User: What shape does this take?
Amino acid sequence: ARDDVMLDALDDALKNLRDRLGDDPSAWTWGSLHTVTFAGPLAMIADLTPLFTAGIAEVGGDAHTIAQAAFEPGAGFGVDVLASWRMIVDLADPDTALGVHTTGQSGNPVSAHWSDQLALWREGRHHRMPFTPEAVAAAASGVLRMRPR
Assistant: This one.
């Protein structure tokens, strides 16, 4: 009976995969099922979804891997939890730091920095992160000063 139950479970899993990913198992990838959608709270309003969705990415991992990307068992394979920031710092030379955010530095969907880091994050790459005030000033592309009246 155990073998029958296991074979039935395997048949069900293979049917589910074929229904979702097609008939060619060599084309099946975990990322095709395991995706993350970067959407702000206003994306819940149907007409605003395109404006407030920074992107969708296929990801590896699960709740128990270094590149954690957890999903809720029984609720599909969409990612619910993952690291939104990656950073590598040599404390002897902090201006050589590397980092990447999942989407971009800005929360404003009309900003050039709304989702400009998504490709880097998706590919597991980073950009330079100047750390000291002098290095930040030298690398800055602009300054925004907000002062009360």
